């Protein structure tokens, strides 16, 4: 998925045949699956904490991510958009 940010573009890139690029409309953060995951992480695990330093932030983010991926279906739930169902994955 590409959100059109300038740093997500390249003049020359080879996309493998088994990869489908999905371009999101401009300024559509609510459609970006990664943004939905970050929202869940912040709301559920990261916001109620005050981190002492950068290392604690990294540790907290890694812990939150590990807790999310340990929950079956958790990542699929906030990222299940109808427009993604039409993309072939095989």
UniProtKB/TrEMBL annotation:
- State what protein this is by name: Transposase
| Source organism | Roseicella aerolata
Q: Which InterPro entries match?
A: RNaseH_sf, Tc1-like_DDE_dom
Domain of life of the organism encoding this protein: Bacteria
State a single Gene Ontology molecular function: nucleic acid binding
Q: Which stretches make up the Tc1-like transposase DDE domain?
A: 2-55
